[in-house]
Design goal:
The complex is a heterodimer of chains A (172) and B (351). By secondary structure, chain A is mainly α. The N and C termini of chain A lie far apart (77 Å). Chain B is mainly alpha-helical and 351 residues long. Chain B has one domain. A two-stranded antiparallel sheet of chain B has the order 1-2. The longest helix of chain B is centred in the N-terminal third of the chain and has 36 residues. The chains are: A mainly alpha (172), B mainly alpha (351). The interface between A and B is medium-sized, with 22 and 25 residues.
Chain lengths: 172, 351
């Protein structure tokens, strides 16, 4: 079909869906819908991981982002009962400033991506690095120290969250 | 290519029908079982001994008037039960139902797909399962439904953590593979995993009860406090989907427990039996007998689920959270440490 392989078709469709849902995250008015579109975007990205033969990353991406983090987001938004009526209108100056900053970010990204054509693309279909066995070997042999340091960082964040969330003992 | 697609389509359809049929008759069995425990007869009018009761229930559900609240978010209101049903069913795709069959020199796995991350896939689907309840509860625009949804999601998130850690211990002691097929095959020659993971199984079982929202963890639909919980506003078949998906969840989590901890389609002295019957590897009959063994184990677990439901009272919400975070989480960590120590002394782990 049009000289494209199935993988290329899948890549195109997934990318289109990912971009469309990502745009919907920003454009939709209701915060709950926005979160749900973000979950769909995560699923599209997990699909991309699958195309790269990184099944472990794909499933962990869903478990961590769609299954844990976005559930908590949804949880908070539902409890606060945010909706379009209560949404405050941003001041005109804030809109102009955010527009300028977004434009600058685009500028920087275009500059950074301009050099991307010099990178040699690796044939990804045959890559085995995303399989759980190879990934585990790399993480626990080659990158053991940074891996453990990252886990300590997460632990520190966890302890900090518990400290902030802890109820102060009532005096008297 | 075509033969492959046909084979996969037959597998998918077969497993889907199996889940639906098992769940339908689990509803009947639940009522019969409750009747037995309470010294009643249970449903006995539709068909011989009540055998057609699930059909009658299904027809009733479809015939009821369907009400979608005016103030609800209509599309999300419809999405909720559909999502809950989908996540309930797709878990079954990694369960190996029987030994591979050899037909015409071609080996057919009795499993929809054997991915090398099967166990994490199970956790992933379990973690998405909460969206069905949350979306349904929130979009009803009802305080009771919202409270039920919030309860369900916090409960499911809390109990996923000890469940995951119990699974890590299981994987360490069963040889380090994440594929369900390899975990089952590993239990063919040796003991079932329950021998090495008794505490891990207990933790997994309690978490499975909580994940399926079964009593004593059915706080999301606690009628004394929340009317009907997250499905208060639902009627007709949308309510039916929520109730029915619970039974599918129960069936599949029983299948997963039988597969991970009790040897799946293997059973003691299976090879002696096959030898005596003169069955070669890859024979259809071996698969049929193995499938029967798996279904027997699943039936045992389903009965256990029901027995617990009709025996134990419901937890209070703070007790539920305390049990999850202060008992099960430390216990599962302890189990992990013990497992690693045991495996080190057995010589299966090298430093």
């Amino acid at each position: 079909m049009l000289g494209l392989t199935i993988t290329q078709w899948l890549f195109g469709i997934l990318s289109l869906m990912a971009i469309m849902f990502a745009l919907m995250v920003v454009f939709t008015r209701s915060p709950v819908n926005s979160v749900l579109y973000l979950v769909l975007t995560f699923f599209c990205i997990a699909g991309h991981y699958l195309l790269l033969n990184a099944q472990f990353l794909a499933v962990v991406h869903i478990v961590v982002y769609a299954g844990a983090i976005m559930v908590l987001f949804l949880f908070i938004i539902m409890l606060m009962n945010l909706n379009t009526e209560t949404e405050q209108q941003k001041h005109i100056i804030a809109r102009i400033i955010s527009g300028v900053i977004g434009g600058l970010l685009l500028f920087v990204m275009v500059g950074a991506l301009k050099g991307a054509e010099q990178i040699n693309l690796v044939q990804s279909g045959a890559s085995q690095i995303g399989l759980v066995k190879n990934l585990g070997n790399v993480l626990f042999h080659e990158f053991l120290f940074p891996f453990e340091v990252a886990s300590i960082l997460l632990l520190a964040a966890l302890v900090g969250a518990i400290m902030i969330g802890k109820r102060e003992p009532i005096k008297n | 290519m075509t033969a492959f697609i046909i084979y996969k389509a037959i597998m998918c359809g077969g497993v889907f029908l199996l889940c639906l049929a098992a769940a339908a008759y689990a509803t009947l069995w639940e009522r019969k079982f409750a009747a037995f425990l309470q010294d009643r007869k249970g449903p006995s009018r539709a068909g011989w001994g009540g055998i057609l009761q699930p059909v009658a229930d299904g027809v009733k559900m479809f015939m009821k008037e369907e009400i979608i609240p005016n103030v609800s978010n209509r599309s999300l209101f419809i999405l909720g039960p559909s999502l809950f049903m989908i996540t309930a069913v797709i878990t079954s795709s990694v369960v190996p139902w029987a030994k591979p069959v050899m037909i015409g020199g071609q080996v057919y796995d009795m499993q929809i797909t054997d991915i090398n991350i099967g166990v994490i896939y199970l956790l992933g689907v379990a973690s998405i399962g909460v969206y069905g309840i949350m979306i349904g509860g929130w979009s009803s625009n009802n305080k009771f439904a919202l409270l039920g949804a919030v309860r369900a999601s916090s409960q499911m998130i809390s109990y996923e953590i000890p469940m995951g850690i119990a699974l890590i211990a299981l994987i360490i002691s069963s040889g380090g593979s994440l594929s369900l097929k390899e975990i089952v095959e590993g239990q063919d020659a040796g003991f079932a995993n329950i021998v090495w993971q008794p505490l891990g199984f207990l933790i997994f079982f309690i978490c499975a009860l909580a994940e399926t929202n079964r009593a004593p963890f059915d706080l999301p639909e606690c009628e004394t406090e929340l009317v009907g919980g997250y499905h208060t506003e639902y009627s007709s078949m949308k309510l039916g989907l929520y109730l029915f998906a619970e039974y599918i969840n129960m069936f599949i989590s029983s299948a997963v427990m039988a597969t991970l901890y009790f040897g799946g389609y293997n059973f003691p002295f299976a090879h002696e039996l096959y030898e005596k019957l003169g069955l070669a590897d890859g024979s259809v009959w071996i698969s049929v007998i193995g499938f029967g063994a798996l279904m027997t184990k699943i039936f045992g677990f389903v009965c256990l689920f029901m027995w617990i439901r009709w025996t134990l009272p419901r937890f209070r919400y703070d007790q539920l959270m305390n049990l999850g975070w202060k008992s099960l989480l430390p216990l599962s960590l302890l189990n992990l440490v013990i497992t690693v120590a045991v495996e080190y002394f057995r010589g299966n782990i090298k430093l």
